[in-house]
Amino acid sequence: MPLLRFDVIEGRNEQELRRLLDASHEAMVEAFDVPHSDRYQIVNQHSPNEMIIEDTGLGFNRTKDVVIISIVSKTRTKEKKERLYSLIAERLKNECDIAPENVMINLTENNDADWSFGLGEAQFLTGKL
Fold it and tell me: What is the per-residue pLDDT for 124?
């Protein structure tokens, strides 16, 4: 049940945002083998002065199209994570015209006790999921 948060510079229209979310979700489904209905995505739009995203010395040329994707997920293998990063970058390039150097991804792992989908219950622990 990955949760994805997208931080972007304001200015994308509803269709552009939807393509961004759809492309990222399809990559997540393929890379992490999650059900298609496991979709939890949040978009935060910022004015340009609210995002300073440099290149950590890698020589990237970031633009206003930069997308920061923060993911919270149960533990995944190194191979699945690398596949996810690759698929997201590829799909955002092909479907949203976002250059791969404008895609930054951060993944934080957690476990079953860290999720409640509602009703004040930890559904992974109670066996409902």
Answer: 92
